[in-house]
Structure formats: C-alpha cells, structure tokens
Design goal:
12 helices; 307 residues; elongated
C-alpha cells in the first residue's frame, strides 16, 4: 500500500479528531492537509502509521486552536462550531461516545478546556487511545495525561446535561416541530418546547441575529411562527437534516443557496435549545451561501404586504 493510500484510509479518523479539537470543518481540513505534507516529507516509515498521523494531526490542531482562541474571544456575539453534516469516522465499539462528542452542546463544553486538555480528552475519552499513545501524541508523560483527563472530565461534567433521547423519538419530535414551523402554528410549536427553551444564533456580525437570544416557550414559538409565513412566501425552503448528530434543518433561499442551519437539543420529550448558525463563513462547506440580509429584507416586505 502506498503512503497516499494509507493516508486516505485514515483520513476519516484524522478529520474526526481534528474537528472535535477545533470545532471547525475548514480548520480541520487544513490540519489534515498539513498532516499529509508532513507525512509525505517524512524520510522514514513509522512503525504505526495510525499512531504517527494521529499524533501529527493532534499537534497541528492544538497549535491552530491556541491561535483560534484569541479570535474567538473577540468574536461578535455567540460563537458556535461549524455545523457538520456527517461524521466520516465510524467505530461500532465507540458509537455512543462518537455521537455524544460531536453534538453542538458537547463541542461548546469542550470550549471550556485548554487546548491540551481538549486534545487529551478527545483522544482518550472519545477515540479510546491508550495513555501511552496519548502521551506520545501531545508530548507529555502518561501521568500528566491522566491528570489532564481528570481535569477535563471535571470541567465537562460541571456543565453537562446529556441530551440523550431515543433516536426515533427525537426524529418524530423534530418532524412535528419542523411541520409546525412551516405552518406557523404557535400552539403546535409551544407544546414541543421546554418552558425555559433558549433560541440563539451565531451570526459573527455578518448576518442577522437575535441579540443574546430568545427565551421561553411562548416567546420562541411566536418568533418562529412570525418568521415562517413570509419565509415560505418568498420561496424559502427548510430542508430537514441531521447536523452534528442532532435533528435539525438547513434553510435555503428560492435558488437553493444556504441561509442558515438549525439544530435542536432534545431532552425529556421537549426541545431545550435551538441553535442556528448564520455566519456565512461557517456555511461555505455546505454549498453556495445566500445573502441573509437580502432574504430578511424580502421576508419583511412580504410580511408587511400580508399585514
């Protein structure tokens, strides 16, 4: 097998590691490209290609995250990870860990960790690497890595509300929600929302946003219902889609361009959090991006004509 073939075989794993460390599809892809260049330039063949490439992509991702942290501190409004359509890596023995770790809620909790803690947690807790492999990947002793995992577990656990629901149950509830949204059905939306539901968006200052968010079932239901009719009227399409392992949707304009994504956190038969990503920079990997401001202006005109 050639180096290129070995690399391609491991690409899904490398992307999944990088994405969980970085929370960015584009940065993860860049990290993989840099990993390939280093592997291609390596004068010797490593004893374990998987261990070597995993270590390289982890170190690159740690460095990228350290510089990204500074940008995220200055980010306009709420920062969310770039939405992920599908996780390319599968491991039946770790399916629960993999699914849980890629949700928006989990990725936002990972933001609490230092870059080193985050990398060690991802390698050990998500992908099940041995402490010897983790230590080699991050350049620390096994004892130090064990301590990093303990600290990371504590930080993650403090903010963790595990959004565990039967997959079929989630799909049914999400379907009812999206149907009620399309119809502008306030009562139908309200009954699916938790009393303290929070709807918040990430626009990065480059698209319309809801300030610090909309709170409470009544408010969220009314905002969503108000948005729905003019959006449908101007040819907008809501495409149900799983994002980051959660039920959600991709919103498109009449030309099929991406306006935003929406993901739903579901617990105890109710929607707890609605997160939308509107920042066009975070949507480019999903296809051609629409001008969200123009869509909003057209929707507002349609609403005024209706009123």
């Amino acid at each position: 097998m050639t180096r290129a073939e070995e690399f391609e075989q491991l690409r899904p794993l490398l992307f999944s590691i990088a994405y969980r460390i970085l929370g960015s599809v584009s940065e993860a892809e860049d990290a993989i490209q840099d990993t390939w260049l280093r592997y291609e330039a390596s004068p010797t063949q490593p004893a374990s290609v998987k261990a070597f490439l995993s270590a390289v992509v982890t170190r690159i991702s740690i460095d990228v995250l350290r510089s990204a942290r500074l940008r995220r501190e200055e980010y306009a409004g709420q920062w969310f990870p770039e939405p992920l359509l599908t996780d390319p890596y599968e491991d039946p023995e770790r399916s629960a860990e993999l699914a849980d770790s890629v949700s928006m809620a989990a990725l936002l909790l990972l933001e609490r960790l230092s870059p080193l803690e985050r990398a060690v947690f991802v390698l050990r807790e998500v992908f099940g690497f041995g402490f010897d492999e983790v230590a080699s990947a991050v350049g620390r002793s096994e004892a130090a890595c064990r301590q990093l995992v303990v600290r990371a577990r504590r930080h993650m656990g403090e903010g963790r509300a595990r959004f565990v629901a039967d997959r079929r149950e989630r799909e049914v509830l999400a379907g009812r929600f999206l149907d009620a949204f399309t119809r502008g059905d306030v009562a139908g939306l309200r009954e699916l929302l938790a009393a303290d539901v929070h709807m918040v968006g990430d626009s990065g200052g480059k698209a319309p946003q809801w300030g610090k968010g909309v709170f409470g079932a009544e408010n969220v239901a009314r905002v969503l219902a108000t948005m729905a009719s003019p959006f449908v009227q101007i040819g907008g399409v809501m495409e149900p889609h799983e994002l980051n392992g959660q039920p959600g949707a991709i919103f498109r304009d009449r030309d099929g361009k991406v306006i935003n994504t929406m993901t739903l956190d579901i617990l105890d038969g109710r929607i707890q959090t609605i997160r939308t990503v509107l920042n066009p920079d975070k949507l480019e990997h999903l296809g051609q991006v629409a001008d969200a401001w123009a869509v909003l202006r057209e929707a507002n005109q349609a609403r005024r004509h209706t009123d």
